[in-house]
Specification:
Ankyrin_rpt; 7-stranded mixed sheet; alpha/beta; ANK repeat; 16 helices; 328 residues; 18% strand; Serine Threonine Protein Phosphatase 5, Tetratricopeptide repeat; protein-arginine N-methyltransferase activity; methyltransferase
């Protein structure tokens, strides 16, 4: 006889909500993984059974559990075009992240803090900057994305701010728009020295501020365009930066950030795009995401020697944020 977890998976596949609720009420494990590595929630999402999904979520089924091939219930709903199921899982994910921030904190616990990164040696090559653990800080494949970010934030001209120099891709692109002023904040000593060696400190309209953005806020003015892309920080750090946007971004100004949020999972990425959009809306900003296809520039050879593929999606969603009053 099948155990209650198997029976719950079967009820989820069939969309039998009464059977599913009965099994849940009698103690069936909503976190159960069957021999395929799938949970009842994944089965329900795969077949678009929204009522079963709701019953499972209400009983505490984890919305962000992953199969052995790194697919979540939300991914199953997305792939199969089950809109109601997808919306239900998306809203659950957003609410959970607003309260708990589970993905970001899990990654934070596993990763290094930015202070560890700042003390770490970085290695520069023609197409990438790597940390000592062979994790990519920045890679050349991002160049067209950085050019698109620069075009967005420079669209009205004026004073520009970039947080995080990296390989200098976005700053090189910003310079092509001849901004009135161009402030760059960089915290890593080796990257900073490389900037100076490359002549960035001698450019007429460029001001370089060495230090963590959290420590140099008092040295910053207000800007017409702002870009944020730091390594070794997490969603919570970007959320903290957003709290300062009302002081940093001039009326009519445009803000953007490197949108690498959960770049290894399509559904989690959507959750975080929606989450950051909601949080910026609460601060008075509207966010538009412009889709840019990146599949063709991400062959396996790109990742040779890189420990972690930080981007695995076919489309990059470039955020363009403006004060809500300015977009009306």
């Amino acid at each position: 006889m099948a155990n209650s977890g198997e029976s719950l998976c079967e009820a989820a596949r069939e969309g039998d909500v009464e059977k599913a609720i009965s099994l849940i009420d009698s103690g069936a494990d909503v976190t159960y993984f069957d021999k395929e590595g799938l949970t009842p929630l994944m089965h329900a999402a795969n077949h678009g059974h929204s009522q079963v999904i709701k019953a499972l979520l209400d009983a505490g089924a984890p919305w962000n559990a992953l199969s052995p091939s790194n697919v979540s219930a939300g991914d199953f709903a997305m792939e199969n075009g089950h809109q109601a199921a997808f919306d239900l899982l998306l809203n659950t994910g957003i609410q959970a992240e607003l309260i708990l921030g589970t993905i970001a904190r899990k990654e934070n616990a596993k990763g290094k803090s930015d202070s560890d990164y700042l003390a770490d040696r970085v290695n520069f090559s023609e197409d990438k900057v790597m940390d000592s653990k062979s994790k990519a800080v920045m890679m050349a494949w991002e160049k067209p994305l950085m050019e698109a970010h620069a075009k967005a934030i420079c669209s009205k001209g004026g004073d520009m701010l970039n947080i995080g120099f990296g390989m200098g891709l976005v700053d090189t692109a910003i310079q092509q728009y001849a901004p009135t002023s161009h402030t760059i904040v960089e915290a890593h000593p080796e990257v900073y020295n490389r900037m100076l060696h490359a002549g960035w400190g001698e450019k007429v309209n460029v001001k370089i501020i060495f230090g963590r953005w959290q420590d140099v806020l008092s040295q910053l003015g207000s800007f017409d365009g702002i870009f944020f892309d730091t390594y070794g920080e997490y969603y919570e750090d970007m959320r903290e930066f957003h709290q300062h946007l009302p002081q940093l971004l001039k009326p009519g100004g445009i803000y953007s950030f490197f949108n690498g949020l959960c770049g290894g999972n399509p559904f989690f990425h959507v959750v975080y795009c929606q989450l950051v959009s909601l949080e910026l809306e609460n601060l008075g900003y509207s966010t538009q995401f412009i889709p840019l296809p990146v599949k063709d520039c991400l062959g396996e050879e790109i990742w040779e020697g890189v420990k972690h593929k930080y981007w695995q999606l076919d489309t990059y969603y470039l955020p363009v944020c403006q004060c809500i009053e300015d977009t009306e």
